[in-house]
Amino acid sequence: MISEFRLPDLGEGLPEAEIVQWLVAEGDEVRLNQPIAEVETAKAIVELPSPFAGVVQRLHAGAGDVVEVGSPLIEIDVPGGAEEGDGAQDASPAEPDPAEPVPAAEPERAVPNLVGYGAAPRAAGRPQRRARGGRPAAAETDTAVREAAPHDIVEEAPPADARHERPRSTPPVRLLAKQLGVDLALVEASGVTGIIRREDVERFAARDTVGPAAEAETPAAPTDARETRIPVRGVRKATAAAMVRSAFTAPHVTCFLDVDVTETTRLVGSLRSDPRLAEHRIGILAVVAKAVCLALRAEPSLNSRWDEEAGEIVQHHYVHLGIAAATERGLIVPHVADADAMTLPELADAIRELTQTVRSGRATPASLTGGTFSLTNFGVFGVDAGTPILNPPEAGILGLGAVRRRPWEHEGEIALRDVMTLSLSFDHRLVDGEQGSRFLASVGDVLREPGRAMLLR
What we know:
The structure is a single chain. 24% of the residues lie in helices and 22% in strands. It has helices at 143-148, 171-180, 198-209, 212-215, 234-249, 262-273, 284-298, 344-359, 365-368, 433-448; strands at residues 2-6, 16-22, 29-30, 35-40, 45-49, 54-59, 66-68, 72-77, 252-260, 304-307, 312-315, 321-323, 325-327, 330-332, 335-336, 373-377, 396-400, 404-410, 413-427. Strands 9, 12, 15, 16, 17, 18 and 19 form a seven-stranded mixed beta sheet that branches. A four-stranded antiparallel beta sheet has the order 1-8-6-3, with no helix packed on it. Strands 5-4-2-7 form a four-stranded antiparallel beta sheet. A hairpin with a 4-residue loop joins strand 4 and strand 5. Helix 2 (171-180) runs parallel beside helix 3, helix 7 (284-298) packs across helix 8 and helix 7 (284-298) crosses helix 10.
């Protein structure tokens, strides 16, 4: 029986997703919950497991196509069901033989409509094993599927007991390989982990370009090409929509504060030199995150959201701290859940693990929604200050500038000190200037004298 799998709502409330690559091809046999495709939403790259076990009959979209939620994605021939058109040649049904037992009626199958739904109920009788044919010839194979998952396509039919394992790599590396036209199945990993890295793909592509195929005469690129058009999809599309919504719905106010963070940088140096804390790699971002969590307790309006439909201000009694991360797919703001309940080493570990997960394209939808306050560190790019844009529906976001050695008044004298500029943007519907200023001053006090954290609760 042909079962159709439609693109489900991946738990993010997003209307569409882009096919990154197929992990199967038409004619492949798939198991229940076997990954069949990688799709990219506006927030993450997600593997889709198969809700059926059977043979792939048709792929409704190719790599790079944008598919709406609820649209057909793949058709799978599930063993045990009646084939389409069975008995169509007989004008009238044959009379059953009294000597043969009448098979029990097959129960109605439940059609899975979400990832992880599970297999359909088994038929009452023993299912017939489907005879497997060879894979389709290379010329008949869908070109888009070959480009998206070249390691799943072979020129000759493999033995029945052969196992196919796709090369181990991260989504950004697979995207780079696709853009360069590199078959990952031919790339050898240089590291001991066996994971193909960006350098491996670039090295292979550079070697391939000097081969005989590259020596063939190719038409020259047009000399008048002065523009490049990039489709607005995925993270960039979602970021653009969120920023427009933020700019035109939330009245932004930004205030700035220059802070002498010399004592904080000394604290960070001391913690990093402590062998008991060396593995946590505590940095200034973690200290600022801790200071923010402490200051939000005193100024809960910054940890709130505006509920337009209910006409209410919702104050959160927890802190899901968003950390803006620049990735190859664009700006993503995952959050550290319940950051206010963490110690400084726990917070440093959580931030590091979260950014690594996001940059590898494996962030979960849950970590990308539900933040209550955000941090953005544009100081890593050498910038002193900026005007952070709110991440809807949050009421506040704090920007961290670069730490610079500046002449500064210290104990009645001019001395070179470590100075950082903090930039706080907040939603003026929820937060008054007094509350925003007090919050920013509280964070600055902790960074100026970390011991003042003992005064906050």
